[in-house]
Design a protein that fits this description.
Elements (H helix, E strand, L loop, with lengths): L1 E8 L9 H8 L4 E5 L5 E2 L8 E4 L8 E6 L2 E7 L4 H17 L2 E4 L9 H21 L3 E5 L4 E5 L7 H16 L4 E2 L3 E4 L5 E8 L4 E4 L9 H8 L2 E6 L4 E7 H4 L7 E2 L4 E4 L4 H12 L1
Parallel strand pairs: 10-13, 12-14
Antiparallel strand pairs: 1-6, 1-7, 2-3, 2-4, 4-5, 5-6, 8-9, 11-12, 13-17, 14-15, 16-17
Length: 282
């Protein structure tokens, strides 16, 4: 679920919004990011599509922004943190401070003043809090840096305490330097589809307990069941072998849990890779 607000420039001779100008106005308070096909944050910013906007002080889910000529579409998700919603409206206010715009919601409701936006901000916070408080199952959250799968029943039953714990959880899961592994798919000469993860020596990595794909895609479902993992030596810049992920998973029992589906690997060494490959070849 989400709610989109449209910010449209006023005036007959108004020019289209420049994403770069908006970025300059908003930074460093707000950061802008794009995602790859596995919903992981990327270093390349693509303003041709929706980008994520977020604040680094407390990293949650952020909100979406899409530039369409004289319009900016601001998409606010639900099952978000209170900070995410407040940030959404602070961003809208920032645009109002710098441009003459009409702000409307999905239902056509207009928000001509900051006072009307403040009331809408509170209304959305109240609705979102009820939504978060009522959730009690395992849920995959598309957070700022990567998807995070959590169980809402692990949090307090008190709505405000649950929101506090949820906010701290999302921030803690994203507030360190790591690489999130995701499968790559390729076809062999017989057009059979294969899934491969790649792990690099010395890199702190978020790795799956067992292979999975984020979104159901029939053509990938069979391939992911028999996924492999390949290893890359950072120092020698060479590939050093590959084995079934099911075999690799046998070595993961001592690792710290990242979320419901993933573990934190402190960074594999070349010696550990050699041991795994030797054991599999015997």
């Amino acid at each position: 679920m989400a709610h989109t607000y449209t910010l449209k420039r006023k005036g007959l001779f108004a020019t289209p919004f420049s994403p770069q100008d908006i970025q300059k106005i908003a930074q460093p308070e707000f950061q802008f990011s794009s995602f790859d096909g596995s919903y992981r944050i990327t270093e390349t910013l693509d303003f041709q599509h929706e980008v994520a906007v977020w604040t680094p002080e407390t990293i949650g889910r952020g909100f979406g922004v899409q530039f369409k000529g004289k319009e900016i579409l601001v998409r606010m998700n639900y099952l978000v943190t209170e900070n995410d919603i407040n940030d959404t409206f602070r961003f809208i206010n920032l645009i109002m401070d710098n441009f003459k715009v009409n702000v409307t919601g999905e239902d056509g409701q207009s928000f001509p003043t900051k006072q009307t936006l403040e009331k809408e901000n509170q209304r959305q916070n109240d609705f979102n809090l009820r939504y978060v408080a009522g959730e009690d199952k395992v849920f995959t959250i598309f957070a700022v840096k990567n998807p995070i799968t959590l169980n809402f029943s692990d949090f307090s039953n008190d709505p405000k305490q649950r929101m506090k714990e949820y906010t701290e959880y999302l921030d803690a899961k994203q507030n360190f330097d790591y690489y999130t592994m995701a499968p790559r798919f390729y076809e062999d000469k017989d057009q059979n589809l294969h899934a491969v993860y790649v792990m690099t020596t010395g890199v702190l990595s978020i790795i799956p307990i067992e292979p999975y794909i984020m979104m159901a895609r029939p053509e990938f479902e069979e391939a992911i069941k028999d996924a492999s993992i390949g290893f890359f030596d950072y120092d020698t810049e060479e590939r050093v072998g590959q084995l079934p992920y099911s075999e690799f998973a046998k070595s993961l029992s001592s690792l710290e849990k990242y979320d419901e589906y993933n573990l934190i690997h402190p960074g594999i060494t070349r010696a550990e890779i050699d041991i795994l490959l030797d054991a599999y070849s015997e």
